[in-house]
Design goal:
mainly alpha; Four Helix Bundle (Hemerythrin (Met), subunit A)
Length: about 140
C-alpha cells in the first residue's frame, strides 16, 4: 500500500476537509445542536455551488476552490448550470427538519464528491479508498443508504 499525498488547496484536499466537516456535523447532531449542524451543512452546500460554478466556467477551475461565490456568480450559475445538476443541488437544500437536513447533507456530499472527482486535477478525488470509505460511513450515518 502506498501513501497518497494530497496537495493543499487541491479539490481532493477540499473534499477531505468537507468530509471531516460532515463528521463534525454528525457530532453536533448527536449533541442536539441543530444550528451548529446547519452551519456545517451550509458550508458544504456553498462549496458545492462553487464546484458547479467551476464546471460551467472551465477557465476558473481551481480559482474558486474554497472560496464563496459572489451574488454575481450565483446569478451566472442560475443561467448556466444544467437542469439536472440544478435540480439535484436544489433538492438537497431542504434543511427544514433535522431528518431533512441529514438527507440533504448526504445528497450534497455525494454531489460534491462527484464534482470533485470530475474536476480533480490531481487525479485523486473520490478514488482514494479512505475517501470512499468515509463517504460510505457518512451517508450511512445520515440515513441515506
Amino acid at each position: 500500500m502506498s501513501t497518497v499525498v494530497v496537495e493543499p488547496g487541491s479539490s481532493t484536499h477540499l473534499l477531505i476537509g468537507h468530509l471531516i466537516g460532515a463528521t463534525r456535523y454528525l457530532k453536533a447532531r448527536r449533541r442536539e445542536q441543530p444550528i451548529t449542524s446547519w452551519r456545517f451543512a451550509v458550508a458544504t452546500a456553498n462549496a458545492t455551488a462553487a464546484l458547479l460554478y467551476d464546471r460551467v466556467h472551465p477557465g476558473s477551475q481551481g480559482n474558486r476552490l474554497g472560496q464563496p461565490l459572489s451574488t454575481r456568480e450565483y446569478l451566472e450559475l442560475d443561467g448556466e448550470v444544467s437542469d439536472p445538476d440544478r435540480q439535484k443541488f436544489l433538492a438537497a437544500l431542504d434543511f427544514s427538519t433535522p431528518d431533512a437536513m441529514n438527507r440533504g447533507l448526504a445528497q450534497i456530499l455525494v454531489l460534491f464528491t462527484e464534482l470533485t472527482t470530475v474536476e480533480s486535477p490531481d487525479g485523486l478525488g473520490a478514488s482514494t479508498l479512505a475517501t470512499r470509505r468515509l463517504l460510505a460511513f457518512l451517508t450511512a450515518e445520515l440515513g441515506a443508504t
